[in-house]
Amino acid sequence: MTYRVCFVCTGNICRSPMAESVFRARVAEAGLEGLVEVDSAGTGGWHEGDGADPRTVTVLENGGYDGAHTARRFRPSWFSRLDLVIALDAGHLAALRRLAPTAQDAEKVRLLRSYDPAASGDLDVPDPYYGGMDGFEECLEMVEAASEGLLAVVRENVEGRAA
């Protein structure tokens, strides 16, 4: 049975596509392709059908990740097929929990940086959209740092299902 993870930010052109690409690479490195499905979406639909922000693509490709992406809006109906919904900041966390059809679905929503053992205090991945390239690079560092911890949790769940 496939384990499904969806990363969610505001418009699905900066943070969540970055997290999707990085985590997909971690899943492949771990040999979990075919067992884990990774995607992303935005809380709003302003950029539906657009590619990722060019700065996101540049930072991803410079880091050795895939920059291909098409933005879309998160739909509450997706909760039924998702195992984890990963919010990039506290605002997304609250919005997604409000959208959740059931309390069980709301429990699927987690903050990405909660999986980074070195993170403390503010667990938001700041929106780099209105800044320069340094914000996108910082975003990538935060996403990479949290991805290892998230992978450990996902691997444990996948192996638990197989047992």
UniProtKB/TrEMBL annotation:
It is an enzyme of class 3 (hydrolase). InterPro entries: LMW_PTPase, Ptyr_pPase, Ptyr_pPase_sf, Tyr_phospatase_low_mol_wt. The active site is at C9 (nucleophile), R15, D127 (proton donor). Its EC number is 3.1.3.48. One of its GO terms (molecular function) is protein tyrosine phosphatase activity. Signal peptide: none annotated. The keyword Hydrolase applies. It catalyses: O-phospho-L-tyrosyl-[protein] + H2O = L-tyrosyl-[protein] + phosphate. Belongs to the low molecular weight phosphotyrosine protein phosphatase family. This is protein-tyrosine-phosphatase. It comes from Streptomyces resistomycificus.
